[in-house]
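Write out structure tokens for DUF6551 family protein.
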Amino acid sequence: MPVAASTHKVEKFYEAIPVSQLKVDSSLDAQRIFQPEWANKLEKIWDPNLLLVATVSRRVDGDYVLDGQHSNEVARRIEGPDFLRDCMVYKGLTTEMEAKLFLAANRDRKPVKPYDNFRVMITAHDPLAIQVDAEVRSVGLEVSNGTSTNRVGAVQALMHLGSRRSGLIARVLTVAESSWGRDAGTWDNMMLRALGMVLVGNWDKVDDKRLVRTLEKAPVTRWKANAIGATTAGGGSSSRSTPLAGNIVTEYNKRLGPDRMLVAP
């Protein structure tokens, strides 16, 4: 038997609304808890010309943000309460409909792969992406969506290293290649992050030749296995890089005087 269509009427239209008039219902199941860290990150990269449309539910008592509360708060901070935010406004939603709209905005988006995002950043002339690409190319390699002999697929690790210090990427890749050769296994996300930790914390103190002699004693897989064994269950490559960096520093420091020892992260 066919299911009867819903007779609940919902209006939908675009409208520019002052950010001071956009409310957040903290009791709404569909609303995320406000995350200050995320808002602070958005504030650092704020560009009003790149602000996407907010999803808003127009209730009897006002307009409530279903998607876009963090960027709305940043707009309020930087642009002021009268800043007009482009909104897709829904009028006549039930609480269930609001929840479904929230899910559609946050669950049904296909995640962008790190490499795809990187290429878009290059096209947009993002300074960090341009720097990362230049440093990787300076050592005869290229950023790629897959790792091979001459291609580095650890995009997230490269972007992290690039944000830490200029020249760090080139130095990390050179040390890695000198230790294990130009091989797909050399450009490992976890290892690149760990080497970055070691170098950035001891920039002028590290003897790269000694570091290479330390690293080449074991393959990347053995270094990783030892670090993973010392990591709390559930840790990703980022958290596992910390004990890995610690292991590298411990081996490097053997038979060195206190004044030449590296500091572990």
